[in-house]
Amino acid sequence: MLYPKRTKFRKYQKGRFKGCKADGTQLCFGKYGMKSCEAGRISYQAIEAARRAISREFRRNGQIWVRVFADIPITSKPTEVRMGKGKGNSTGWIARVVEGQILFEMDMVSLSDAQQAATLAAHKLCLSTKFVQWF
């Protein structure tokens, strides 16, 4: 699972998404990629599930680059706990994704295999994505 060894703060505020990102919107490593069509949050389990789906589709051939990293902790309070008494404990990790950000890159596979793998991975993510190709 992908999460940081340590962070500057134990708990973060939720935050809001504004605008588009300038960096991380172009393919850098592979010929094919998955780009987000909307802003949102992706959990570390969803990132890992999508990576495994792509890896299985390629049958461990080809190369995959994960361009997002879940580095923000998510907290939640236990069920049936009264209001107040501070923020809950950390329960997982998320990555903030903005519109147009590249999520995964793929190389050394055919176009049809890359498109099929991107479709399988898109079903694992809670954001709408599109397949992009380097020209």
UniProtKB/TrEMBL annotation:
Organism expressing this protein natively: Polytrichum commune
UniProt KW keywords: Mitochondrion, Ribonucleoprotein, Ribosomal protein
Q: Which Pfam families match?
A: Ribosomal_L16 (PF00252)
Name a biological process GO annotation.
mitochondrial translation
Q: Which GO terms describe its molecular function?
A: rRNA binding; structural constituent of ribosome
Q: Which NCBIfam families match?
A: rplP_bact
- PANTHER family to which the protein is assigned, alphabetical: 50S/60S RIBOSOMAL PROTEIN L16, LARGE RIBOSOMAL SUBUNIT PROTEIN UL16M
Database matches in InterPro entries: Ribosomal_uL16, Ribosomal_uL16_bact-type, Ribosomal_uL16_CS, Ribosomal_uL16_dom, Ribosomal_uL16_sf
Q: What is the lineage of its organism?
A: Eukaryota, Viridiplantae, Streptophyta, Embryophyta, Bryophyta
The identity of this protein, by name, is Large ribosomal subunit protein uL16m
**Keyword Ribosomal protein appears in the UniProt entry:** yes
Q: Does the keyword rRNA processing apply?
A: no
Query: Where is it localised?
Result: Mitochondrion
Positions the record marks as coiled coil are none
Family assignment from sequence similarity: Belongs to the universal ribosomal protein uL16 family.
